[in-house]
Amino acid sequence: MRLNPTERLQKNPNSYKAGVAAYCYDCSGFNRAEVKRCEIKSCPLYNFRPYKTKKETLQ
Fold it and tell me: Which tens digit of pLDDT belongs to each residue from 18-39?
């Protein structure tokens, strides 16, 4: 069974990566696809968000 980002953070509360993923997951209404489509560039975590599109990863 695959854990969602919030559950992953609960298992490893000291993980920076898990914290960012959980925050983005929560902000996007608990939908991974929405994290990928995030357009809120004023968010301080925008450049660190998980699930980026391939185009964004290459930039």
Answer: 999 999 999 999 998 898 889 8
Instruction: Report if pTM > 0.90.
Output: no
H-type alpha helices, 1-59: 5-11, 16-27, 32-36, 54-58
DSSP state of 31: -
Cβ atoms 5, 34 nearer than 8 A = no
Tell me the C-alpha distance between 14 and 28, whole Å.
22
**Domain parsing of the chain, residue ranges:** 5-47
Alpha-carbon distance of 52 to 38, in angstroms, equals 9
